[in-house]
Amino acid sequence: MGNEAIKGVIDKILNEKRSLIQLKIDKVKNNISAQLEQLKELKELAQVKIPAGLDMGAGATEQVGSIHRAIMKVSTADNQLNLINSLLEGLNYFCTRAALFLIKGDKLVGWKGTGFSNHGVGIKDEEVKKIFFSYSANTVFKRVLETKESYSGAPLSEPDDHLIFSRLGGKNPQMIYVLPFFVKGKPQAVIYTDSFGGKAIGKKEVEMVSIVGEMSLDLLPLRQKMLSRVRTREFVEEEPGAPSPAPSPAPAEEYPGDDNEITLPSVKESDPERLARVIINDIVLYNKKQVEEGRQKRVLFKGPLEVTIMQAKELYLIKYNDLSIFERQLVKQLAKGDKDALRGFKFETL
Question: Which domain holds residue 141?
Answer without folding.
Answer: 63-219
